[in-house]
Design goal:
Elements (H helix, E strand, L loop, with lengths): L1 E4 L5 E6 L7 E2 L2 E2 L1 H17 L4 E5 L10 H16 L3 E5 L6 H4 L3 H5 L3 E4 L9 E5 L2 E7 L5 H4 L11 H18 L8 E7 L1 E2 L13 H8 L4 E2 L9 E5 L5 E4 L2 E3 L16 E7 L42 E8 L6 E6 L1 H6 L10 E6 L8 H8 L3 E6 L11 H5 L4 H12 L7 H20 L1
Parallel strand pairs: 1-8, 2-5, 5-6, 6-7, 9-10, 10-13, 11-12, 13-15, 18-19, 19-20
Antiparallel strand pairs: 2-16, 3-4, 8-9, 14-15, 16-17
Length: 442
């Protein structure tokens, strides 16, 4: 399918993903915050004269979005189109492909291409500039159990097998269109969990949200699966990441977990030049804060811009564009009295707050007191300061205590400092005496 033609020397593509419209944050709506961010994204499209905006999956957070979620999406798409950019978006594992793709044939007439059907992965949206055509291949989220019947002659039992199959078809289609020999360039959108973004042997760096989705069944996919295209716009990982110069995750536009608080929010601005433009001018390539998971996996073939198959890539520059964070996420630690009174915590009063209380005994009514100062405090954890005495083993700590003292201490702990009443002490003593009598008979 052919779309608009531009006469620019480079084609500007804004890569974003994982909008998760309709997601709540600890029971609070994020729609207004997302509106702010998407409005800023539209401003980037205007200011930087972006030609194409690609959204790599998880447009909605639910397969059954609320009406207001559709309104937020409509506002964003209208703003992007009014700014003159073409929109190409694919469904993710959170989306209902059927609902998201409803009336997509009408939307494409307005320059909004919504790719949700499995067979569309090898049917490119073609946009031409001064250097020739750019073929955009959108791979909808392909659940193996739901798509293998479409291709019964192929073994499609894992995400790696499905995406390997899809990419082979894409490369064949691109070659059939003449490839770079006629100025053809290609961009692929995919929603998957590619290797080296979150190491499979250590999930400690994965955010809570990503870890939840992983538990839902997404496989790791080797980066080499995406050999060939000039740029691969990935979605699913909520923090920005670079597998190679031409294979990247943009991350989500909002923070959806405190484990994501340290990750910047924004989008990649990608420029495609002539097919032989191999030099990169990416200010983010040397950014020490950006994960650089480009070391080859010994079990997988290396796939970098040095590969002969990629040596004529048209990627001319990649730039990270920051988007606003409407409300920061902060984790604060201290005693309850310090947190609610110390002036040094004033900077967090407007943030989403997760509080860790270090009081020896869990304070009564801690959340209410915290929310008087931090109205957006949504999490509270009691983590008493460990003293030298507390570092001893449990056996060592209770060795010198009587059974009555151990039970009384337990009740005091679970009751936020309130120990057993006299009546309860009597019951405990009677029960222990009865048990000792039984033990002596036995």
């Amino acid at each position: 399918m052919s779309a608009a033609t531009t006469n620019l020397k480079v084609m500007k593509i804004l890569h974003t993903s994982d909008w998760h419209i309709g997601r709540t944050f600890h029971g609070h709506s994020t729609l207004e915050h997302l509106r702010v961010v998407l409005h800023a994204l539209v401003a980037v499209v205007v200011e930087r004269q972006v030609d194409v905006v690609v959204v790599a999956g998880d447009i909605f957070d639910s397969a059954t979005p609320a009406a207001e979620s559709y309104r937020v999406l409509t506002e964003a798409l209208r703003g992007i189109r009014d700014a003159g950019a073409t929109v190409i978006m694919t469904s993710g594992n959170h989306d209902s492909a059927t609902r998201l793709g409803f009336q997509s044939e009408f939307a494409q007439l307005a320059g909004i291409h919504i790719l949700t059907r499995p067979e569309q992965h090898s049917e490119p949206i073609t946009i031409s500039d001064a250097h020739g055509p750019v073929h955009f291949y959108g791979i909808p989220y392909l659940e193996p159990s739901l798509v293998r019947h479409l291709y019964p002659d192929h073994e499609l039992r894992s995400h790696t097998q499905v995406l390997t199959f899809a990419m082979r078809r894409i490369r064949a289609d691109a070659a059939g269109r003449g490839g770079r020999s006629v100025g053809g360039r290609s961009v692929v959108l995919s929603h998957c969990f590619a290797v080296d973004v979150a190491a499979p042997t250590d999930t400690s760096e994965a955010s809570d949200v990503e870890r939840d989705i992983t538990a839902g069944g997404l496989d790791f996919v080797p980066m080499s699966t995406f050999d060939g295209p000039d740029y691969v716009a990935l979605g699913h990982i909520h923090g920005r990441a670079k597998l190679s110069d031409r294979v990247r995750y943009s991350g989500a536009p909002l923070h959806y977990s405190f484990s994501e608080a340290h990750k910047p929010r924004g989008a990649w601005l990608v420029e495609l030049g002539a097919p032989d433009a191999t030099a990169l001018s990416d200010p983010a390539l040397s950014d020490p804060a950006l994960p650089d998971p480009t070391l080859p996996d010994p079990a997988l073939p290396d796939a970098t811009l040095s590969d002969p198959a990629l040596s004529t890539a048209a990627l001319s520059s990649v730039e990270w564009i920051d988007l606003p964070v409407p409300r920061r996420l902060s984790v604060i630690t201290g005693t309850l009295d310090d947190l609610v009174s110390d002036p040094s915590y004033a900077a967090y009063e407007g943030d989403w707050v997760s509080a860790i209380l270090t009081d020896r005994v869990r304070p009564m009514d801690g959340m209410r007191r915290l929310q008087q100062r931090f109205p957006h405090c949504v999490l509270l954890e009691h983590r008493p300061v460990v003293t030298a005495t507390a570092t001893r083993t449990y056996a060592a700590r209770v060795k010198s205590k009587s059974d009555n003292e151990i039970i009384g201490g337990f009740l005091e702990y679970v009751r936020n400092g309130v120990g057993p009443t006299e009546f309860e002490r009597t019951l405990i003593s009677d029960a222990l005496s009865d048990q000792r009598a039984r033990d002596s008979v036995a």
